[in-house]
TrEMBL record:
This is Uncharacterized protein.
Length: 111
């Protein structure tokens, strides 16, 4: 099945993590501009097979219009990197289904 890449399912997952922090298995900020979150792979995700490919990474640059339409959400994740004031031009989203860990990976890289 071919699915045109849309970003609303990514928004839905990010918003679910924000509003239900109990879903978080682990959250890491390995670099100054990266937030990496792991949630259970039992979390409902629309088109999970597409957006969270098994044991491989899917990396997408989020369109500026998408980021501008959800400024508070991205500002909250930016603050999770330890920075107070958002200062980024691009956001890259990396997703994967880590089958051995039974987790979904959601990583945001702020450039």
């Amino acid at each position: 099945m071919l699915i045109e890449f849309e970003f609303e399912p990514i928004y839905d997952v990010l918003k679910r993590i924000e509003t239900h922090p109990e879903l978080i298995i682990a959250i890491k900020s390995p670099y100054k501009n990266v937030v990496r979150v792991f949630i259970p792979d039992t979390t409902p995700v629309e088109h999970a097979d597409f957006y969270f490919p098994s044991n491989k990474l899917m990396v997408n640059r989020l369109p500026n219009e998408f980021i501008k339409s959800h400024p508070n959400l991205f500002a909250d994740y930016w603050e999770a990197t330890g920075k107070i004031r958002p200062n980024f031009d691009e956001v890259w989203a990396t997703t994967a289904h880590l089958t051995k860990e039974k987790a979904y990976l959601v990583e945001l890289s702020f450039e």
